[in-house]
Each structure stands twice: as C-alpha cells, then as structure tokens.
C-alpha cells in the first residue's frame, strides 16, 4: 500500500505560511492561472526548478483555436471527438472549442507574439485537423514564446510570489478538503503553505519511459500527490507516443513537430517507400496513435529502429521560415532538413489522463484544482488532438479562477501528525538513479506502445517489488520524484491491464479491437478503495 504521506509529518513542528492561491508548476497552465488569479488574489507559485522549465517550453506546433472565418467550433469539436476515440466528454470539448479563441486573445493581451501573415494571425494545419486553426510563434517555437511572455509578466506582478527550486512533497488534507501543501525549500527545511485554493499545474509523466520528448522534470508529481491526497485519477492507461521524435546517435529524442507533416512532409520506411496509404486515408495527417502504430509496424517489418521524415520536396525558404528551431537542431547533428531525410521514431509524449476534474477544474477534494496535462478534464479522451493541450490549459485556467472567486474563506485549524509504522531505511544516491532507469525500461518494455496481459502483469510485478522504497527516509528531490514515478507507473500498468481492448493511446495486442459495448467508460482510481470505479 502506498502511504498517505511520503515523509513523517508534524505540522506543529514546522513554519506555517499563508497565501490566497497556491499554484504548483510553471508551464502555460501554471503561469496563465497565476496571472488570472493575481488580478484579485495573492498567489504563491511553486516550481521545482524554474519558471522556464516545463513541457510548454518545448511545444513547437502551436495552439488550436477557431480563428478563421472558414472554420467553426463545430468543425473543431468534431475533429476532437474523432481523435478522442469515443471517450471525450462532449461538454468539456464544447467548452474548449467555444472558449479557446478568447483564451488566445488573453495570451496576446499578455504579450504573446504569434506569427502573422499579411497582418492577420498565421494559421497552419496539423494531423487530424480538418481546418487550418493552429496559431504558432517564431515558426516552431510557440511554447517558448508563450512561456517568455507569461513568465516576464509573472515576475513583474506584485501579487505573485515565486518560489523556484522548491519541491511540493504532499498536499495537506482534512475531511476531504485541501488546506495547502507540505513544501521542501532548497535548504532542506520543510514548511506548511496554507492556501484558500491549491491548483496543480505540474505537467505530465513522460519520464515513466526510457524514450520521451519530455524534459527531466516530467515525473508525474501532481498525479501522485493528488492520488495520495484522495483525488480521483482517470484514464492513465492512455499515453500518447509522438510519432516523430528524432532518432539519431548522440541526439536527444527531440520532437519533430506534427506541423512538419502538416506542411507536406512524407513518411518513408528505410527502403524509401511511402507507407501511410496502407494504414489510413488521411495518410501522414492521420491521428497520432494511427501514425505511431504504422511507424512501429514498418520498423518491425523492415527490422529497423527508425523511419524517415522527408520534406526535401518543399522549398528551402519555407522550411527555414516555418521550422527554424527544428532546422537548427537537426543541423547541429549533421542533418539538413532541406536536403536530408530525417530519421525518426515514436517517443512518449503526453498523458491523456490524470487528476479527474469537473468543468471548472475542481477535483473531488474540495479546494484542490488541476489544470493542464496533470488534469483529466475529459477534453482529450483516449487520444489528444494535436495542439489542443495549450488551448485546454488556458480555457480551464480561466474557469478555475471563476470557481476560486466563489469559494468561502477556509476555516478551522489543522493539526496533522503522521509517522510511518516501521523505522525508515536510508537510500543511496546511486540506488535512486538505478531504480529510475530500471522503472523506465520496465514501462517501455511492458506498458509502452504495444501491450499484452502477460507483459503488463510481469511489468506490474517488477514495479511492485520496489514498494519498499516508500519505507525509506526521503530528503532529496530525486527520491521524491522516483516515489512519484513509481506511484503513477503502478496506476498506469493496472489500468492498462484492466482495459481489455485497444483504443486511442492504449493498444493491446491480445485485444486489438475497440470494444464500445464493454469499454466505452473510464477507469478511475481513488486511494483507499480496493476497486476500480468505472464511469460511463
């Protein structure tokens, strides 16, 4: 059993700090929500590294919103529902497509400079979108531009205090209500931060896998601390592997944006053959799970570790103008996007599930909210539509602030003293590094792109052998991160083992067909309950 708290807790023995709103994390969800909250509240932003370290920063393609007169919210909704493979919440998607354009204008008002063409916002198309509705910045550096604009504004806001290099160990709850968080400072001192509302914006869990487009910080912390606090965790079996990450000796798994295929790039196997016509009528612009599976099939058929992405038939001018970051990164490894086919392979990219929320971002734990990739709002279903993630963060960030404004004052004292039953054991640094790498390899092998009952069971058993880690004395960030990864890995493998079908980002070789009759429902976990709840 995973304990309620990772460390022994005595709130009476540590300093208490009070604020109105606690924002945990610093991607687009955290920055945007903090800025909106600061208009009427005092905000404390807590990041385990810095404002500039998040998945948002690495987002290339852009942000999806209905801007063009040729587009409509109905088109955007239809595309999202199709990609989500039957598990999207129609109400959540309806909110996204109708409120997304206002969110984009909020970003512009906050200083984000999107690319223009002839004085109008430039729009491109990405996989599984029927219309051109993707706004971008500096060609392929959309996330970095949004983070730049919002973080500059955040630093100047007198109502926002920023704690860099701080780690949220756990949420503090009593009687189903969140009172704030137990936080470790860079010095190692722990403090209790009490807030009227706590918003998780801590991103995803790409570091569950050996190969990922995510930065090192994406260790599933928010999902794990919310699970330990009694929040519902939904849909974590659905993990999106981005079809096209750079796969080249000495290079990181750098994301090659969906937008490259949106601008006309072909996929070729190592024999040089285009192959997507064998898999889907939308060819290279099919939904991500379809494209990624097709790539894996071709790799297996050709006994290769990659396929090629070919945009050499487009003009050099277009490639350098639209994809300056990708062009430069590839060039650093001796690959020229304008003349070379680029070796690519799928890599873990995005978790569709997370902390289950209502349509205002609130969890089943009162005063605890979740926004961005850490959340499960119902927008993404079993497979996220490209560029909907940034839209989701701003749309639901706005709605979270609406709900926070309505909260009554937090009343009552809280006294928590929690100590482990058995003496805690010491951990060596080397052991944590080895354990993390082993977990990533287990997840990639047994709970990765293609799954079977036998493999998932074996993976779960190997992970469960590490449960004694929760009895350790944890004092460092990497120890908390491993505990959180292990927590999320166990939830993910359990959900994947339970769902006996294939749908979206979950593919079972032993159950290769989608089964709406049995499985058009969500798998929901809640700590302390022995059964998995299924919500239709």
UniProtKB/TrEMBL annotation:
One of its GO terms (biological process) is 'de novo' NAD+ biosynthetic process from L-aspartate. Residues 436-526 form the Fumarate reductase/succinate dehydrogenase flavoprotein-like C-terminal domain. Coiled coil: none annotated. Residues 20-390 form the FAD-dependent oxidoreductase 2 FAD-binding domain. The keyword Oxidoreductase applies. Gene3D superfamilies: FAD/NAD(P)-binding domain, Fumarate reductase/succinate dehydrogenase flavoprotein-like, C-terminal domain, Succinate dehydrogenase/fumarate reductase flavoprotein, catalytic domain. GO terms for molecular function: L-aspartate oxidase activity; steroid dehydrogenase activity, acting on the CH-CH group of donors. Belongs to the FAD-dependent oxidoreductase 2 family. NadB subfamily. This is L-aspartate oxidase. It comes from Paenibacillus whitsoniae.
């Amino acid at each position: 059993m995973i304990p309620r708290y990772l460390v022994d807790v005595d709130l009476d023995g540590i300093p208490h700090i009070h604020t109105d709103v606690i924002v945990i994390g610093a991607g687009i969800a955290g920055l945007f929500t903090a800025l909106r909250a600061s208009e009427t509240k005092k905000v404390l932003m807590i990041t385990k590294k810095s404002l500039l370290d998040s998945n948002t920063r690495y987002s290339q393609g852009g942000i999806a919103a209905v801007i063009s007169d040729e587009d409509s919210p109905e088109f955007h909704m239809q595309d999202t529902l199709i990609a989500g493979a039957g598990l999207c919440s129609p109400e959540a998607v309806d909110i996204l497509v109708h409120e997304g354009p206002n969110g984009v204008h909020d970003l512009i008002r906050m200083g984000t400079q999107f690319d223009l063409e002839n004085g109008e916002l430039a729009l491109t198309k990405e996989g599984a979108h029927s219309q051109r509705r993707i706004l971008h910045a500096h060609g392929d550096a959309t996330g970095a531009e949004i983070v730049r604009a919002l973080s500059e504004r955040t630093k100047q806001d007198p109502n926002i205090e920023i704690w860099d290099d701080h780690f949220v160990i756990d949420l503090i709850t009593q009687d189903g209500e969140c009172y704030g968080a137990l936080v470790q400072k860079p010095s190692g001192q722990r403090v209790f931060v009490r807030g009227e509302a706590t918003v998780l914006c801590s991103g995803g869990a790409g570091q569950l896998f050996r190969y990922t487009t995510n930065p090192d910080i994406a260790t599933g912390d928010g999902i794990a601390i919310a699970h330990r606090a009694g929040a519902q965790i939904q849909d974590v079996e659905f993990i999106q592997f981005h079809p096209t990450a750079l796969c080249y000796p000495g290079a990181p798994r750098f994301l090659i944006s969906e937008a490259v295929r949106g601008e006309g790039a072909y996929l070729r196997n190592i024999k040089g053959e285009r192959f997507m016509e064998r898999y889907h009528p939308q060819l290279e612009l099919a939904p991500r799970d379809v494209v990624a599976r097709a790539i894996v099939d071709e790799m297996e058929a050709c006994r290769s570790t990659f396929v090629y992405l070919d945009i050499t038939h487009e003009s050099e001018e277009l490639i350098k103008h639209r994809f300056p970051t990708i062009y430069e990164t590839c060039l650093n490894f001796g690959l020229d996007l304008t003349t070379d086919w680029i070796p690519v392979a799928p890599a873990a990219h995005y978790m569709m599930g997370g902390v289950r929320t209502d349509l205002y971002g609130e969890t089943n734990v009162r005063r605890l909210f979740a926004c961005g990739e850490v959340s499960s709002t119902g927008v993404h279903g079993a497979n996220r539509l490209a560029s909907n993630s940034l839209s989701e963060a701003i749309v639901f960030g706005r709605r979270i602030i609406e709900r926070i404004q309505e909260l009554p004052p937090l009343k009552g004292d809280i006294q928590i003293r929690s100590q482990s039953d058995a003496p805690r054991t010491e951990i060596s640094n080397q052991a944590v590094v080895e354990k993390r790498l082993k977990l990533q390899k287990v997840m990639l092998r047994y709970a990765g792109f293609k799954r079977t009952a036998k493999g998932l069971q074996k993976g779960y058993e190997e992970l469960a052998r590490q449960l004694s880690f929760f009895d350790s004395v944890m004092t460092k960030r990497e120890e908390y991160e491993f505990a959180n990864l292990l927590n999320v890995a166990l939830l993910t493998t359990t959900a994947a083992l339970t769902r006996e079908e294939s749908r979206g980002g979950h593919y079972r070789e032993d159950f290769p067909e989608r089964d709406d009759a049995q499985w058009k429902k969500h798998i929901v976990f809640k700590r302390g309950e022995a059964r998995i709840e299924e919500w239709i």
